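[stage:ingest] chain + small molecule (nicotinamide-adenine-dinucleotide)
[stage:ingest] validated
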Amino acid sequence: MTGAGERRPGAGDRASGRFDLTGRTAVVTGAARGLGRAFATGLAEAGADLVLVDLPDAPGLAETAAAVRAHGRRVRTYGQDLARTGELAGLADRIRAAAGPVDILVNNAGTAALERFNEITPESWSHVMRVNADAVFFLSQRLAEHMAADRVPGRIITVTSKNALVAEAGLAHYNAAKAAAQLLTETLAVELAPHGITANTLAPGMVDTPIDGEFPLEREGFEAAYRERIPLGRYARPEECVGALLLLASDAGAYLTGARIVVDGGVLADQMPRMRFMPPYRSSLPPDDGADDGAGAG
Ligand SMILES: NC(=O)c1ccc[n+]([C@@H]2O[C@H](COP(=O)([O-])OP(=O)(O)OC[C@H]3O[C@@H](n4cnc5c(N)ncnc54)[C@H](O)[C@@H]3O)[C@@H](O)[C@H]2O)c1
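[stage:predict] done
[stage:export] tokens:
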């Protein structure tokens, strides 16, 4: 007998089979570039058909669709401003009608603006909240209803951030929105468990993507300073977050719900990164000279 969150016996008894997504359909938001493109490509490589959502006319969406097709998978694209939350139930309905039952939802789209707390306007606050939190809720709400009606053991994965867990100056709205996304996803985990649908978060640290391209920062200097804070010594490549996503999206993660996976190279594990007066702690083992010390282009 199968229970909540499980597929029929036989699906994926071997290690590789547990991550096989053949026959599943996944929706990825913010799929035109960065992490969204890596997630869509990784899900296609694992066998899933894809539904890609991004802003209308987002330049990279066709390129992500081509990457999915290159893996022999079906793909549909939808131009939708996710900040228009009143339209998301309709979007979910159109996706269900065109693509059939949705097995996996990856709430990846996000936006951030580096602004001092006293300079954040109501418009900026509201936009960051709507994209990073409200849209996550309303898209999940309707697609979860479809998952339950279609009786699929659905997977909802919300991409939050280390900023959902620890504050960062200049990002009051983003921090608050990501924390809201964390808790609303945990709430979905509890409410959807009886339907066999899981809901989890994936919290990246610093990833080499275009997201902070518009920040008023001298990027090279910022990155060099931040790298010193990362125990692994470098930003992640987007592809390095795909393994955690596949765990949450596949049969391998059937018993994971309400969980968060932090993919941050050890940032949150280190409570004393600024103690520069101390010599950096190193083990007495010889260093790994072959270590990759620079993230590739996102
Ligand atoms: N890059 C990082 O260092 C990092 C760290 C932690 C968390 N994250 C999170 O990971 C997710 C992906 O980030 P990324 O770095 O790939 O960012 P990105 O800016 O490269 O990509 C985000 C995508 O979301 C889309 N998007 C933004 N607003 C939208 C809207 N209103 N409607 C529809 N689509 C919209 C953009 O067009 C873009 O294609 C985000 O939720 C982000 O907050 C990123």
